[in-house]
Amino acid sequence: MSQRPGVARSLLPRARSAAAAARFAAAPSQPSRVAATRSRAPATAGPTERGLCGVRALEGRRLPPITSSTRGCGVAEPVSISSVHGIPLSRPARVDCALARAFAEWVDDSLVPAVGRRGGGVAQIRVIGDYSCRTRNSQRGARISEHGRGMAIDVAGYQLSNGDVVTVENHWRRRPHRRDLHEMYEEACDIFRTTLSPDADRFHQDHFHFDLARHRGGGSYCR
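^ thats the sequence. predicted structure below, dont judge the formating
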């Protein structure tokens, strides 16, 4: 069977859990359960009392529609996220609200618990990819990436309160942060529809890729 350009051969389908199935079904129209009930920071930047994208824990601003002459690119109602649950991002991330809500859930349910109080806890999340009108892995002839729809985000690591920097590239296979990275990544597999780690292919050696692409059969990809 021939491989589609830009798609990792190592991708393996993963059956979604019952919780993930319910979450994915609700994603287009409802905020995550974390969004409605929990917050570590006031919604000073949100346009309503509930905050950005209906999530009190998301800080940032709404953006004008992103349009593109490239078919498949653009975001109808984009937002720029600057912090999640009081944790600043290394740079603002331009994404769709559905992705923003899923990301807020991952930070609260996966990233923060995995790190705990190690090094004083997470002080910054290092984001290296958000909206970008390009093909998958920037490969010629490949399909438009979910980044081109604002439905993907790339996380390279995080900084701890004590100043230590944990990166996917340097610590995915090395102690003492290997276990934390693997734990938060495994949790992401039940929140996003596509999750890629350094084990996926040569394109993801320095970051986690999370997106909300719909897969045939309703499953998700976790590799």
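Residues 3 and 9 are 7 Å apart (CA to CA).
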